[in-house]
Amino acid sequence: MSPRPEAVAAADWWAAQLARPARHDVGDAQANAVTNSVSELVQRQRNQGQIAAIREALVDEIEQVAARAAVDPKRLTLVGSLPADAPARWARRHGYRCLPTMGGVIVQRGYETPIVAGLGDTLLWDGERITLLERP
Questions:
Q1: Same domain as 84, residue 61
Q2: pTM exceeding the 0.70 threshold for the entire prediction
Q3: Per-residue pLDDT at 99
């Protein structure tokens, strides 16, 4: 399976940054000159092989992070490692609003009764509505 285009684009951007000298702009011409001179003295030069290896490793890392952040369209378990916007995106996909709370979310559609879910809870989509999976 080929990597996501956005993962490749991000890795390409970082590889391009590594291939050229750093240029700083700290808001003052004299300070810029000093900062850029110091950077040139201490910046580690990388060859094209090293940059290509970093790029490939970065594509793999971005893919792994993206895969962990992927959400099943039929169920969402609230865990601490879930990206902060994942519950809202998941709920919006099903026509619901999602409000973050201290340690969970409130999910609601229209004037339906709100669903309050905390860390460890699982929300289910049955094709018509979101429900809360009861814990054993």
A1: no
A2: no
A3: 95
